Amino acid sequence: MANEAPQTTTGTAGPTGPTGSPGTSGTPAPDLGSKVRSATRWSLVNTMVMRLGNFATGIVLVRYVLDPAAWGVYGVAQTVLMVLLSANELGVTLAVVRWEGDVRRFAPTVLTLGALSSGLLYATLFAAAPAVAGLLGAPEATAVLRVMCLCLILDGLAQVPAGVLTREFRQGRRMIVDALNFVVSTGVTLALALQGWGAMSFACGAVAGNVVALAGCALAAPGMLRFGWNAEQARALLRFGVPLAGASLLSLAVVNADAMIVGAVLGHVALGYYMLAFNMAGWPVRVISETARRVSFAGFSRLADTPKALSDGFARALGALMTATVPACVLLGALAGPLVELVYGARWRPAAEALPWLMALGLARIAAELTYDCLVAIGRRRSLLLIQALWLVTLVPVLVLAARAGGIETVAAGHVLVAGAVVLPVFLVALRRGGIAVRALLRVCVRPVLGGLVMGVVLVLLRQRLGEGVGALSATSVIGLVAYAVCALPARTLVRGALARRRRTPEPAVPSLPAQKRPAEPARER
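Below the sequence we write its predicted structure tokens.
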């Protein structure tokens, strides 16, 4: 579905207790590692195939069909949809993944809550669409908004079966569902775009794809689309989910604040360029981050009551993500101009102004999203809500000033400034309070960062020497990647060695507290 954040639900009977408190998983099951590895492989294949397909479709549409103004209108609708999806089901479906017990006992209540909240959100958006579109500088986006946001209702219905697939690491089935979604949505979008429907083609394609995805999720997780109501369960679900929905809403507001401000201050043509740069910046971020996040929350949840295993697992995951993401981000950032022109055409070259900064932001987002999943898994929802609020409150005035002072480049730079100077340090403090060894995290990031700096210098120098032709760009990219590999490949050994040394060092036993009795100290996501 359009929202692929991890899903969860709560129970009010059975192992979780009568109040629906999160269950404790204790020592991870012996086969957890194999389940996570298998799910990660399927998730990687799924994400790669879907992103490559979306990439190819986007090239056709942007290069041959749509102009920057139409792309900006679509960007307005997509931005609003993503923000609303974050609060669509009030956060309660996260209990499907996180809480123990028989999911069938509380799934009907979760589904009812999701359907009610998504229906209410859509009705509100339908009435407010003209005002929202005008505020974002694209009054012509009203009809597109009303059609595209039908995905809210479909997403609310699909949350429970999709959450069951995540909970049980059934990423193979999820891949089939996503493939059907992609084929249908892409086919409808292309057919309508070629007939001159413009931005509306994206809206109709998204709705068609989500209808198919809902049917696929229902077949992949049979019996999960049953409505029901239990007042005690509903209260427990809302206590668990509303803080997460608030944090998720704030997180999506953070990610989409720049698009809203660009549209409102600089106009929807500038927004079209900015959205293209943002989408390019999302290539490596989404492929790698979505692959990890489809299993990370479920995996961290299983490790939540074994602090040392959680700390080791988080460090290993962060090191692997950074090692894989840095070269792609550096490559797109250092060769932004020629790559944009090569892929999308000369008329889109202005989008390259923001791309280097957005690639740096992508690295920060990957670290923040992984941290988000970890903090949710260990129950630090209040801290996460505070961090997201701090991020948004700091970001909005900076971006407004940046948009008025310059263009899309200064907006992207302001985003990076806030993320690096304010948000990441606060996330590190929250992780340390949650029992994660910060020194180990910094250690596993050193080589990827140094390798990225070396790669960036090599790419800039070779671009100046060889030029911007296709052959020159290919040679420059290969040499830059080799330079990165020479510097960063030992990172894999470093990650394993650091974790091995920690395992050999005896540590005092740490008693495991029930999840509902964890201290409510400052501790979850776009």
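The CA atoms of residues 195 and 377 lie 47 Å apart.
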